[in-house]
Please model this.
Amino acid sequence: MSKERITLNIDGQSVTVPPGTTLWDAAASLGIEIPALCHDPRLQPVGVCRLCVVDTGERNLAASCVRVCEAGMDVQTASGELEAHRRTLVELLLSDQPEQSMRERTTGDDALYALARRYGITDVRFPDGAADAPRGHDDSSPVIVVDHQACILCDRCVRACDEIQHNDVITRTGKGHTARIAFDLDQPMGESSCVSCGECVAACPTGALTHKALNGLRVEEGV
Model:
């Protein structure tokens, strides 16, 4: 006997999915791309960046990476309100970014910068949050550079370290503006139990974690 399945509408398209499927995954099955920075299909979703919110007709917008599909839902993923919401979030995140993204400058795949281009953002309306209180760098690792100012606290590096490599090295420390990723008991990365596998760099969507140049060459992911 086949298991019960759920049918709903996303952007006017009908889709039938197994129970427990998230709206983000259901939309992806239709070829609909919902922007996200904290989400990676390889990792457990956490819904912290809020860029993937969709309109389910309820009072509040729902983070599609964690919201489970319900039968009969009528979901909108790209209305004017949603796109305005996402554009503002991208601007807010950019206001705390360093002057240059190491990832954008080297490999050119900074996901936050890509979203800025998508929304045509060339000037950020909000005060520069990076100017007065930089969070600093950690160059102690022989192969990885940590730029805390570029970190958006999406926890992708934490989850990649825990769920994919099972090293359990990365966590968070601090509160408010001082919150940042940390290694073991808030040690410099190079002094922690990090094994330099590079999974955190592969998972990071910004210039917060990048490979360090070695003898004039940059270590590439997967090499």
Q: What stands out?
A: The radius of gyration is 19 Å. The chain has a mean pLDDT of 92.
